[in-house]
Every structure is written in C-alpha cells, then in structure tokens.
C-alpha cells in the first residue's frame, strides 16, 4: 500500500475523494512483472497529480474544490488477493475510512470478485480493461472499454464485411473463455454466418 497527495493538498480544498487503485505489479502465480499493471499505475498517479495541481494550466477546472488521495494495492492478478482487497477497500483503507471508489483491476477474473463484494457496500468500481459480460450485472461496476459482447459483434461484422461465409470458434474451458465464445457465436448467428465445427 502506498499513499499519494500530501496533507497540505487535502486541507486546502473543501472535499477529498479517496481512490483505491487496484492493479497488478507482478503476477502471483509465476512471480513475473506485470508491464500492463505498471503502465496503468503510472498513468493513474500522473492523472491524479495533474487533477490535484490547480496551478499548472492543465485541467485546473476539473474538480476545482476537491483533492484526490489514493492508496495503491497490488492484486498480483490473484482472485484470492482481490477478495481480501475488497474487504480492505471498505474497512481498512484510508485509516479505516474506506475508499470512495476503486480503480481496477486489470483482469476480468479479479474484477468480478472485487465488484461482487464492493456492490454489497455500494462502492463504485471502474476497470480499464475488464471485458467479462457478467460484470454488467453489478450496478457499481463501470468500464472504459467495450464488453466482450460488443467486441464479438465487431468481429462478426468484420468477418461478414470481408466476405467470409463461415467461421469456427475455438476457446478455452474456463468460464471467461466460454462466455466470450458464446458472445461470438451469438453474433455470428445474428449476422447469418455459418458456424463450423
């Protein structure tokens, strides 16, 4: 856990938004660095610094009377870590005050666990890269990229536009892969393309 924004910055403004940043810096299972998570953390902290600085001419009118403070938690791309993180987000983060919002995670499996628990406490969550369709069932969850079903429609439309009459869908046996394959199959049927296999 790491904190950002000084006490002076938070005191000079009328309100504070507590943001918990959940992203992997490494992958727990094989102890490898997560480049995607590192880039996301860098982009997030840079954006927070720019929004908090009201004198640099960049987005000075965005949240004019508000400072953003953040705490960072490494998810390790682990479902177990994400479930523990959800409890920390509502009870232990920010000296026991809890997070106002959670940014993350970088994968659909950890986002699903986190969103399901945070929805009970009505804590909003925004993910930059989780596409799993199930996540749309949580009222507290938002994403900045299209869902798998929307991508599937695009894949099918592209196949039809380039003249393909049929397609084959190959996928893994995990729930995420099955859900993605189902979205593509539905899109292929809707575009009247033949499904091979």
Description:
The strands form three sheets. The protein has a six-stranded mixed sheet, with helices on both faces. Strands 3-4 form a two-stranded antiparallel ribbon. With 197 residues, it is α/β, with parallel strands linked by helices. The relative contact order is 0.13. The N and C termini lie far apart (48 Å). About 4% of the residues have low confidence. The longest helix has 18 residues. It is elongated, with a radius of gyration of 20 Å. It contains six helices and ten strands, in the order βαβββαβαβαββαβαβ.
Shape verdict? elongated
Order of adjacent strands in the largest pleated sheet: 1-5-2-6-7-8
Termini distance? 48 Å
Per DSSP, the total helix count is 6
Label the structural class: alpha/beta
Helix content: 40-55%
Subunit arrangement of the protein: single chain
What's the arrangement of secondary structure elements?
Elements: E1 2-4, H1 7-11, E2 15-23, E3 26-27, E4 32-33, H2 35-52, E5 66-74, H3 79-91, E6 101-104, H4 108-120, E7 125-127, E8 141-143, H5 148-161, E9 166-168, H6 175-190, E10 194-196
Parallel strand pairs: 2-5, 2-6, 6-7, 7-8, 9-10
Antiparallel strand pairs: 1-5, 3-4
Helix pairs in contact: 3-4, 5-6
């Amino acid at each position: 856990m790491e904190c950002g924004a000084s006490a002076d910055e938070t005191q000079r403004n009328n309100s504070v938004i507590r943001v918990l940043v959940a992203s992997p810096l490494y992958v727990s299972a094989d102890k490898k660095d997560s480049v995607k998570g590192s880039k996301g953390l860098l982009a997030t902290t840079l954006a927070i610094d720019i929004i908090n600085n009201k004198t640099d001419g960049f987005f000075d009118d965005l949240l004019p009377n508000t400072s953003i403070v953040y705490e960072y938690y490494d998810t390790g791309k682990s479902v177990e870590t994400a479930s523990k993180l959800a409890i920390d987000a509502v009870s232990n983060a920010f000296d026991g005050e809890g997070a106002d919002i959670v940014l993350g995670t970088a994968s659909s499996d950890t986002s699903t666990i986190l969103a399901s628990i945070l929805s009970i406490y009505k804590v909003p969550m925004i993910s930059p890269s989780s596409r799993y369709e199930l996540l749309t069932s949580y009222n507290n969850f938002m994403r900045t990229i299209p869902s798998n079903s929307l991508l599937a429609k695009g894949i099918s439309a592209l196949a039809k536009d380039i003249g393909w009459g049929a397609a084959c869908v190959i996928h893994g046996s995990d729930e995420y892969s099955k859900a993605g394959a189902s979205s593509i199959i539905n899109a292929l049927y809707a575009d009247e393309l033949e499904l091979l296999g």
